UniProtKB/TrEMBL annotation:
Gene3D superfamilies: P-loop containing nucleotide triphosphate hydrolases (3.40.50.300). The lineage of its organism: Eukaryota, Metazoa, Spiralia, Gnathifera, Rotifera. Residues 89-213 form the Septin-type G domain. Belongs to the TRAFAC class TrmE-Era-EngA-EngB-Septin-like GTPase superfamily. Septin GTPase family. One of its GO terms (molecular function) is GTP binding. It comes from Rotaria socialis. This is Septin-type G domain-containing protein.
Length: 600
């Protein structure tokens, strides 16, 4: 592992605090009814000894051993961090796999394992279909082709395009196992999409952003077929990127699940030695691949149920095969759940990594650039001797997918300025509230509704203070971008540039409108045009200084920027938006649907 410098590091407290001499950034005055933002619940891991706080580039990553008492030999009730009184402990399980490996079928089969004791009961009862399925089946002596459709139409499932991932977005299926435990299975878009590597990269980024909003993971299930001839695409597009996000501490939460295992006698088959060789070649031997964390299923019994509900008959030999498949898969599912229950929670906020930093910086990008624009507005007000006024920023959450191309855009007056204000599109009652933003063309995702307000209250800062605030703030942002460039991650290494270009484009469009006074906007255009040069100077300065931030120093800057009230409020709103969308994309399976008693 010594030649892989991208592993993660335990969280330590920030080393720096915001300078008292730095000018504050104006933010709207809170109303009496508005509650102050709760303090950060981020738990800081114990600081490593000084010798472990090395630069990550060019040095071996630190390793962290699990305490011996944390992996008992006998099943016990796990000891998670305290949850709110009366609420069940969540067991979060991420499902990852290539397109067509059977993640959705696995989830459908799993819920029926919990509801029915036998396949015969399921056949004569009402099987549960959490995810609609559609598949081709050949029947009879003439091998007639029949398309079996089972379940209601779901906008998150696309069966129309062969080779593309059926699941379009992450979606959680939440099982209330009993009063104490709640199981969350996270279905994800498949890897190896026929739309190419760019689509895979988008899917991986979407998956990592999704889990980055969770407090913890209990298990990461890598679903594989037992007869795979190669694993290159899945490893390069998925596993390797996952490893840049996890720490070695999270390797023990990785689980291997083999689907369609009936044809290999419920064993890993040809994929087993291929997987072991791939782990060795990628220097990932620390990831356990043993009987204890390897599970072999065959979810074809669910397809049998779907076919039977479509009145397709099978002979007795076929039925017996499906009955045996059901029984074996039920036992493996229970063994999997018991293993996951014993796994220590992987606390996502406790461990730092370059890829996690990239995700956090990406989430910060819009709040930081909007705050930078706020500084520019107030600088220009001060230069125009409008000191009795200031511009403040407000932010509101949204619960739908939206981008600058599908949002309502209005030109709004703001004192001497005009700006482009984006609003949620008006949707007709009864229409699908989930808008899937286009992936082609130039567009920018919107995770909060940002508005500006011109108020009659002085900010109390001089021109020199505003200008200094602008320069210092921009330099801190450029230090974040400089870190990303050094890591050479498969992500956008400058998340700020496209936002600044959009700001400039909006100002230029406003300046061309004839029936409004856009003199103040033209002055903003001049500053926005100069930012590219200033950023180049900052980049050169950082390069000459050979700045090579450690992960701790990077997060000291991130924490310093996030502590600014205007930035913090936007970040909190974005987190709220993500939670709202996560709730909208989850399905809760009530306890009265589950007959199997687990962890009771």
């Amino acid at each position: 592992m010594a030649d892989r410098p991208t592993h993660s590091t335990p969280r330590s407290p920030p080393a720096k605090t915001r300078s008292h001499s730095e000018p504050p950034i104006p933010s709207p005055k809170r109303s009496k009814s508005e509650k102050s933002s709760p303090p950060s619940k981020r738990k800081l891991a114990e600081s490593p000894p000084p010798q472990s706080k090395r630069k990550l580039a060019g040095t071996p990553p630190p390793t962290f051993k699990r305490k011996q008492t944390e992996t008992p030999l006998e099943p016990i009730i796990p000891q998670p961090l305290p949850s709110p009184k009366g609420s069940p402990v969540e067991i979060n399980v991420l499902l990852l796999g290539e397109t067509g490996v059977g993640k959705s079928t696995f989830i459908n089969a799993f819920v029926n394992y919990l509801k029915f004791d036998t396949l015969q009961q399921a056949e004569h009862g009402e099987p549960v279909v959490l995810i609609p399925v559609s598949f081709l089946l050949t029947v009879g002596d003439r091998f007639d082709e029949v398309i079996v459709n089972f379940g209601d139409v779901d906008s998150n499932e696309d069966h129309a395009h062969q080779g593309q991932s059926v699941t379009q977005h992450c979606k959680s299926y939440v099982f209330d196992l009993n009063s104490r435990f709640r199981l969350r299975l996270i279905d994800t878009p498949g890897i190896g999409d026929t739309r190419g590597l760019n689509q895979d990269a988008k899917n991986i980024d979407h998956i990592l952003n999704y889990i980055n909003s969770l407090p913890h993971l209990n298990a990461i299930c890598l679903l594989l077929k037992p007869n795979a001839s190669r694993l290159n695409v899945f490893f390069r597009s998925c596993v390797q990127q996952l490893i840049t996000y996890l720490t070695p501490e999270g390797y023990n939460n990785i689980v291997f699940c083999f689907t369609n295992a009936r044809e290999t006698f419920y064993a890993p088959g040809d994929t087993g030695p291929l997987l072991r060789r791939m782990l060795n070649d990628e220097h990932l031997n620390a990831i356990p691949f043993k009987k204890e964390n390897t599970f072999c299923f065959d979810s074809e019994s669910f397809r049998y149920l779907a076919a039977r509900k479509s009145r397709i008959d099978f002979d007795e030999d076929q039925k017996q095969e499906y009955f045996n498949s059901w029984n074996i898969s039920v036992k493996e599912s229970m063994r999997l759940l018991n293993f996951i229950q014993r796994c220590e929670q992987y606390r996502l906020e406790e461990w730092l990594s370059p890829r996690k930093a990239a995700l956090d910086i990406s989430m910060l990008a819009v709040p930081l650039m909007e705050t930078l624009r706020l500084i520019l507005y107030n600088t220009k007000l001060t230069e125009a001797n409008l000191n009795a006024n200031q511009v403040v920023l407000n932010s509101d959450p949204i619960a739908i997918d939206m981008c600058t191309r599908c949002a309502q855009a209005n030109i709004v007056e703001l004192g001497p300025f005009w700006y482009t204000q984006y609003r949620s599109p008006v949707l007709r009652t009864g229409t699908n509230q989930h808008r899937h933003c286009p992936t082609d063309g130039k567009h920018f995702f919107i995770e909060s509704i940002v508005t500006y307000e011109f108020i009659g209250r002085p900010a109390g800062l001089k021109i020199e203070q505003w200008q200094s605030s602008f320069r210092n703030f921009l330099l801190k942002c450029d230090r974040l971008a400089h870190y990303l460039r050094q890591q050479k991650l498969p992500v956008q290494n400058d998340p700020f540039q496209s936002i600044l270009e959009r700001f400039l484009e909006e100002e230029q469009q406003i300046s061309k409108i004839r029936n409004i006074d856009s003199a103040a906007n033209r002055k903003l255009c001049e500053v926005l045009n100069s930012i590219k040069r200033i950023r180049q100077e900052n980049s050169q300065q950082l390069f000459v200084a050979n700045e090579n931030l450690s992960i701790f120093e990077l997060y000291a800057i991130i924490d310093e920027l996030t502590a600014i009230q205007t930035v913090k409020k936007q970040v909190d709103i974005i987190k709220t938006s993500r939670q709202l969308k996560m709730v909208e994309n989850e399905l809760i399976i009530p306890a009265n649907l589950i007959k199997t008693r687990l962890f009771a």
